[in-house]
Specification:
This protein has about 280 residues and is an alpha+beta fold. About 40% of the residues lie in helices and about 35% in strands. Strands 1, 2, 3, 4 and 5 form a five-stranded antiparallel beta sheet that branches. It has a five-stranded mixed beta sheet with strand order 6-10-9-8-7. The longest helix is centred in the first third of the chain and has 41 residues, at about 1-40.
Amino acid sequence: MLRIFGLLFIALLLMAGMGIGYWVHQDRQARAFVAASIPVIYKEWDAAAVMRRSARTLQKPEFEAQVREMFATFGGHLGSVVSAEAPEGTLHYGRPDPGLPQGLYGEYSAGVTFEQGEGQIRFTVIKEQGAWRIARFAVESPAMLEAMRKQTPVKGTRPGYDRGPPDEEAAVLAAAEEIFRLIDSEVPATAWNRGSIPFQQAKTKRRFEAEMKRLHETTGHVQSRKLQGIGFRFDLQSVNPPGDYAIADFISTYSRATLRERLGFYRKEGTWQFSGHDWSRVEKE
């Protein structure tokens, strides 16, 4: 009997060792994938390189458009990556985002030096069909905040709009007021919960929260907002998903800056859902 128990104990030790070995191997693979991706993506701020390495759920035109827009801004301010430290982080098992399947995933970050300053690049990667893929990423750098503070204000001009029915304009305005109430609150990430599914798939809650935090750090507290206009595009077929879209533009006065803020909305089952938030610095009108 003791011999049987001894053999079972040895078998359990061997299985545990194999499990630990497998975990260490996957962690090394994930780190190597992140380390190899950084120079390929950030030397030229290559959005196509991101798409080639992204998870299947991110292989959508709207996500690629957001990456290209982000890279055009960040790349212009930070320049090419010059060097990167070895990624640090942890391997997990579970679901990194509600829209992603359960499985192996890793969260890693690496300190980097760009031509115009220091920064940090963060990746969440998942194991998908035997290969590591990007599930989300972020670039953080004090140089970006400084560039925004020094950005030369330009006088805002009132854009043209395709007007909509009065009841639809009122509905979009009410939705915009609610989103701004959440964005201006102590927990701005709650606005993400009101977002459309495409918006949530393209931008994680964690990333949205980080963006709002950086915005508030730069601009301070909101003091007033002035509506510029509301515009519509009905029955759009050239976008995914097709349907009805609206924008609401505001001039927002903060304690340290004046911005033009645009909220985007997508109508689903008669309700205007939050689908985007963009801003640029302008002179006070």
